[in-house]
Every structure is written in structure tokens, then in C-alpha cells.
Amino acid sequence: MIGLELLAKLFKVLRSGASPGQIAGGFILGMILGLTPFWNLHNLLVILLIIILDVNISMSIFGFLLFSLFAWFFDPLFHSFGYFLLVDIGSMKDVYTSMYNTPVLGLSNFNNTVVMGSLAASILLLLPMYFLAKIGVVQYRVKIDPMFQKLKIVQMVKGSKLYEWYDKISGAGEL
């Protein structure tokens, strides 16, 4: 039942008045939270960005849940990528030593290969995923939602008294 409720909220966000940029921004910030190990300093910064920036928080939660589901599958790849960044690039050794000796950055756990690899991969995916999500929202609004609204079952549900009652109650808190 919770899955259906989350799916309904996802469709509500996609149909909402929020701009595609706000929805895509929330999605990519949630992606960072989902792909990287959660209890790290950089995720505190991402959560602060979600709160401060004008992004859709529901899509941040959706992005976090979606990418958390399969992030463990990519951990071996993140480990290899992080190992490459931390060990195989010898010219960065002095930079990493300096970062580790900096009080706050030493707590960031950047020297963990999975953390470094997943964070670097998330940063590399930021722009492509932002534009893909933004295009996806626009395409949903233009093509998929109108077809969905024409389905007989959707029209029957929207025409029922129960839906009318639900819509009145759910919109009561919005002013």
C-alpha cells in the first residue's frame, strides 16, 4: 500500500506546477544521497542544499529511494573507480594528504574507496541526469499524462464521490 501511495505522489509531483528544473534538481540531489554511503559529511551538505535551494523535496526523496535500491550493486565499480582516484593517480597524493590533515575534511571519509568512487561518479552524472530528468518531466506532461487522463478507469475514479471527497480533504491544507 505504501508503494502505491509513493507512486501516486510521484505522479502528483510530475503534474504539479513545479518547474521541470525544480523537479530535476531535486531528483539529482536525491541521486547523490542514494548513490553514496549515507553517513558522510558530503551528504550533510547535499541535505542542506535540498533545504536551501528551490528544488522539489519529494523528488529528492524519490531519487534517494530509487538510487539506494541499486547502489549496492555498483559498489564494486565505485570501489574500483575510487581506488583509481586515490591510489593510481600518484600526482594527487600530496593533495589527498593535505585534505586528510585538514580538520573537517579528514572527517569526510574521502579516503574510503567506495565513498570517493561513488561521490565522483555522482558528480560526473549530475549534468546528464539533470537534463534527462528535465526532459522526462516535460515529455511526461506533454505526451503521457494526457493519454493517462483519457483512460476510462481514471475518468471513472475522478468522477466518483469518493474521489471528490478525497480531493476536497487533500486540498484543505493548501492555501
- Percentage of residues in strands: under 5%
Q: What is the number of helical segments per DSSP (H or I, 4+ residues)?
A: 9
Class from helix and strand fractions: mainly alpha
Radius of gyration: 20 Å
Quaternary state reads single chain
Order of helices and strands: HHHHHHHHH
Overall strand count: 0
Description:
By secondary structure, this protein is mostly helical. The longest helix is centred in the last third of the chain and has 37 residues, at 113-149. The chain has helices at residues 2-15, 20-35, 41-52, 57-88, 93-101, 103-106, 113-149, 152-159, 161-170. The model has no long low-confidence stretch (mean pLDDT 89).
Structure summarized in a few sentences:
With 175 residues, the protein is mainly alpha-helical. The chain has helices at residues 2-15, 20-35, 41-52, 57-88, 93-101, 103-106, 113-149, 152-159, 161-170. The relative contact order is 0.13.
Please outline the helices and strands.
Elements: H1 2-15, H2 20-35, H3 41-52, H4 57-88, H5 93-101, H6 103-106, H7 113-149, H8 152-159, H9 161-170
Structural descriptors:
single chain; 175 residues; mainly alpha; 0% strand
